[in-house]
From TrEMBL:
It comes from the Bacteria. PANTHER family: ARGINASE (PTHR43782:SF3). One of its GO terms (biological process) is arginine metabolic process. Pathway: Nitrogen metabolism; urea cycle; L-ornithine and urea from L-arginine: step 1/1. Binds 2 manganese ions per subunit. Mn(2+) 1 binds at H102, D131, H133, D135. This is Arginase. The keyword Hydrolase applies.
């Protein structure tokens, strides 16, 4: 069956040390995305892609941030985003969410899990997390965008999140990390203790990205009911793609990133994706802009 895609902007950037990603959804629309969507939805390509618009940061969320209640701001925003993404599923769409910093994935991943739970009676969500970082920090201090997976698992801030539908939405055995190359000691310990699957750059160099992504998708297709992809742009080589808060040298090439998305998005169990952390103000040469447009286009229809 032909997929119907819905683009959702998530301009929330309060959980990072720099908030440049908040401008990404609108910037991308103006700089390549709208043109791309028009091309793909014309008579020739006939893709079904709609732009939902943004889930806005409202005045209440702004106020929380201003009064230094960043965690409350993240929670409130992610609850809003969760509802929006969940409703996208109800309408039969495949949501593609454009961040924003990586904390927005607390909203997107929980929405995919919530929809699975309602349609399958339980949630057994597979999560492919492409990132330079594991976002698994379970300490109370530090930037919140480095803790999204920890929040989704219920490993941090339980006082704040336990009564929401944002936490405890995924099982460690269903998480597949790709491209991680900057771990904190406590994240390393969690990955070891919980035996979480991690495909670092060494593995990609050794086996090639096609083998790696094939292995990941076939595992998740066997053991889960749906696959969500969370793609942090800092997974890509920070020596080339500088347009994010924390560029890390030695990451994925553009071709590797395209291959990952091309393969995952063709799975029958693919449930949508978020692309996060693009920061236009840090993208001085426009390289990262071009990459992000290519990645979104790969999600919604571009095929080699
Ligand atoms: Mn991240």
């Amino acid at each position: 069956m032909k997929r119907a895609y819905e683009i959702i902007g998530a301009p929330f950037g309060f959980a990072a040390n720099k908030s440049g990603s908040r401008t990404a959804p609108d910037y991308l629309r103006e700089n390549g995305l709208n043109i791309k969507i028009r091309q793909r939805t014309n008579e020739f390509w006939g893709s079904d892609i709609e732009d939902f618009g943004n889930v806005e940061v409202d005045s209440q969320i702004n106020e929380l941030y201003k009064s230094e209640k960043t965690l409350e701001a993240v929670k409130l925003y992610c609850e809003k985003l969760n509802d929006c993404v969940y409703n996208s599923y109800v309408r039969g769409k495949t949501p593609i969410i454009i961040g924003g910093d990586h904390s927005i994935s607390v909203g997107t991943v929980s929405a995919a899990s919530r929809y699975l739970k309602e349609t399958n009676s339980k949630s057994n969500l597979g999560l492919i997390w492409v990132d330079a970082h594991a976002d698994l920090n379970n300490l109370e201090n530090g930037n919140i965008h480095g803790k999204s997976v920890a929040i989704s698992l219920g490993y941090v801030y339980q006082d704040m999140f336990k009564l929401s539908n944002l936490t405890d939405v995924i099982d460690t055995k269903n998480i597949m990390y790709i491209g991680i190359r900057d771990l904190m000691p406590n994240e390393y310990v969690t990955i070891q203790n919980k035996n979480i699957s991690l495909y670092g750059m060494d593995k990609i160099d050794k086996s090639g990205i096609r083998e790696v992504i094939k292995e990941i998708v076939s595992k998740l297709e066997e053991t889960t009911d749906g696959i969500f992809l969370s793609f942090d742009i800092d997974a890509c080589d920070g020596g080339v793609y500088r347009g994010c808060a924390t560029p890390e040298v030695g990451g994925l090439t553009a071709r590797e990133a395209i291959q990952i998305i091309d393969y995952v998005s063709q799975s029958k169990k693919f449930m949508g994706a978020d692309i996060v952390e693009y920061s236009p103000e840090d993208d001085t040469n426009g390289n990262t802009n071009q990459l992000v447009i290519k990645l979104i286009d790969t999600l919604v229809g571009y095929r080699m």
